[in-house]
Design brief:
Length: 299
């Protein structure tokens, strides 16, 4: 950074965020941004939002027709901005994921040797700011440097580096959403599958029917929550939990088929043997569930 570069203090204050769409990785943000500087360069001119989606749809309203001069001889301008922005959301921990909703600004004309952004610590967001289904954790600001490895066809210029500033809000999904809407239905399905092992071994049809029905139900449950997610190439946390559930249900199916082969015309010794196998199998499965769930949560 050049010592002669004009320093510009920049602050953000978010008023509203709406239409947060994880599938398209976009959201609308309504916020104030202010600039305070000393020097001849007006940083509000040639201002770019680097993660904006629809530049034509971004509305900007200056508080002052001309930058206001403060008592310390610095200049000040306040702008209200509303527009659609984009982030590359990460869903590995869905539905316990945290997302960053940010805005990145950069000047399209003045390189880092001419203009540098500095974060104003008086930034923040409105007390009543809320997004249905999300909780706010904190906000953060960071200085960035963006180098363009091209002269954009202008042979009189070289590769340039520009100062940029990022403001972001960190949001997360409530744990209640994970437990009551996603995990609890799967637990009920697993319990119904395990119920097959509590039936009398001579009820072979019912013992096999219950885990098969549970397997089909689990498939439909997984499809229902996948609708609101983009087509990612990796397994998210809830996918891994469902894989664990599938393994348990398939194990139930295999166990009931195996014990059906042991049963011979209701032979008393065979029935007692199957009951012992069922009890041992349930204990092993319970240990597997506990260890597997803990492993997935800390992975």
């Amino acid at each position: 950074m050049s010592s002669t570069a004009q320093q510009v203090k920049v602050g953000f204050y978010t008023q509203n965020i709406y239409e947060l769409d994880p599938e398209s990785n976009t959201y609308y943000m309504d916020f104030y941004v202010w600039f305070k500087w000393k020097g001849e360069i007006d940083p509000t001119e040639k201002l770019e939002f680097m993660n904006g989606v629809e530049d034509w749809g971004v509305t900007m309203a200056n508080a002052y027709e001309e930058p206001k001069q403060l008592s310390d001889s610095s200049y000040y301008q306040l702008i209200r901005v509303e527009g659609r922005f984009r982030e590359n959301f990460e869903f590995e921990q869905y539905p316990l994921d945290k997302q960053k909703l940010g805005v990145v600004i950069e000047n399209s004309v003045h390189a880092i040797d001419e203009l540098v952004y500095l974060a104003d610590t008086s930034s923040g967001f409105a007390d009543d700011l809320s997004i249905p289904g999300w909780e706010f954790e904190k906000y953060d600001m960071s200085n960035l440097y963006h180098t363009y490895y091209t002269n954009f066809g202008d042979t009189d210029t070289k590769t340039s580096t520009y100062s940029a500033l990022r403001f972001e809000l960190v949001v997360s999904r409530p744990v209640n959403y994970f437990f009551w809407k996603l995990l609890l239905p799967l637990i009920i399905v697993l319990i119904s599958s395990w119920g097959a092992l509590l039936l009398d071994p001579i009820r072979v049809d019912s013992r096999i029917f219950l885990p098969i029905t549970a397997l089909l139900t689990a498939v439909f449950l997984q499809q229902s929550y996948s609708v609101g997610l983009p087509a990612v190439s990796y397994l998210v946390l809830i996918d891994k939990i469902y894989v664990l559930g599938y393994m348990l249900i398939i194990a139930d199916i295999m166990e009931t088929i195996y014990t059906a082969g042991i049963l011979q015309d209701g032979n008393h010794e065979a029935v007692n043997r199957i009951k012992k196998i069922d009890r041992a199998f349930m204990i092993v499965k319970l240990c597997f569930v506990i260890i597997g769930f803990i492993f997935l949560m800390i992975l």
